[in-house]
Amino acid sequence: MSIKTLAIETSCDETSVSVVEDGRKVLSNVILSQIKTHQRFGGVVPEIASREHLEAINYVIKEGLEEAKLGFDDIDVIAVTNGPGLIGALLVGISAAKGMSMALDKPLVGVNHMKGHICANYLAHQELEPPFISLVVSGGHTYLVDVTGYDTYEVIGRTRDDAAGESFDKVSRALGLGYPGGPQIQKAAESGNSEAINFPRVMLEKDSYDFSFSGLKTAVLNYLNTEKMAGHEININDVAASFQKAVLDVLVQKSIRLLQEKKRDKFVLSGGVAANKPLRELLEKECEKIGVKMYYPPLELCTDNAAMIASAGYFDYINNGSDTLDLDVFPNLGL
Ligand code: KG4
Ligand code: ZN
């Protein structure tokens, strides 16, 4: 018999509810984005995010069920993101999930948002199975992970400061391109020369798989200041393209080195930054060279959504069972 998981995702600025069958088949995936609200502030305002989640959550749950043509009784498991993320935003999702779990007497499963990003690929690629190497690049986190099973993740590298997506957002703001930065930088970069400015590629120690992007961000800010002080006109497209290439070079080089070291033949890209087209293209080219098959989710499953949480929740549930109603939220939860 199949297991239908209803998942709630409210860790940042998307209120999302989805129903997924057996961790693989998306029956519904409703995403209500708050981006327009936060855009005028240049980034996500946590208090406003919580308030908007609270206003939207019941409606989005209803839509999630309607789109799947199911009622509450058809649901077997309730999954919810319980970290990492904004504490107030996470609390809205977890409170709704607990309420449903209690009222319907259905098992509750807390899901790590970053595992969700990886599992988005199970929804898009029915044949994909562990083991594989995954690069998880989102707005708050950057991980290189050896995924050895459906619920076993070995973190090999992580960022020591800014996340990859965070650096896109900060540089975008400095260039006056707005929020969220990734898509804006990508667009500006299309008309720029990626070799125009030689920004640093921070590789850290020779054997390290960790990342550090704050130095690159500072290098871009210094470049902008120096050029302004000298009265030079700044070519925003060239800055965007050169910055983007510097991020991509580091991500690609470390991913390929890890694939070779672990001798894995599958590579899975995930997280919001996986939406970046040049990153996908560069990784695909380099993976092909070493005989590795590369996977990435379609755009709507790259950025935050509840379908990926339902998938991760399902695999967590069948491997480890459910959580109790005292499940807590963990804003800094690691992988
Ligand atoms: O995974 P996500 O939706 O939310 C978090 O869990 O953080 O990732 C959002 C991040 C933002 O930093 C955004 O700028 C970045 O993903 N992003 C991109 C692109 N689309 C979204 N970065 C680079 N290129 C893109 N096309
Ligand atoms: Zn995310």
Tell me what you see in this structure.
By secondary structure, the chain is of the alpha/beta class. It has 2 domains: about 130 residues, Nucleotidyltransferase, domain 5 (2-Layer Sandwich), CATH 3.30.420; about 170 residues, Nucleotidyltransferase, domain 5. It has 11 helices and 10 strands. The strands form 2 sheets. It has a 5-stranded mixed sheet with strand order 3-2-1-4-5, with helices on both faces. Strand 9, helix 9 and strand 10 form a beta-alpha-beta unit. Helix 4 crosses helix 11 and helix 6 crosses helix 8. The model has no long low-confidence stretch (mean pLDDT about 95).
The helix-strand sequence is EEEHHEHEHEEEHHHHEHEHH
Supply the number of helical segments.
11
Helix content: 40-55%
> How large is the radius of gyration?
20 Å
Task: Please render the helix and strand layout as text.
Layout: E1 4-9, E2 14-21, E3 25-33, H1 35-39, H2 46-68, E4 77-83, H3 87-104, E5 108-112, H4 113-124, E6 132-137, E7 142-149, E8 152-158, H5 164-174, H6 181-190, H7 214-229, H8 236-262, E9 266-270, H9 277-289, E10 293-295, H10 299-302, H11 306-320
Helix pairs in contact: 2-3, 4-11, 5-6, 5-7, 5-8, 6-8, 8-9
Bound molecules: 5'-O-[(R)-(carboxyoxy)(hydroxy)phosphoryl]adenosine and zinc ion.
Zinc ion binds next to α4.
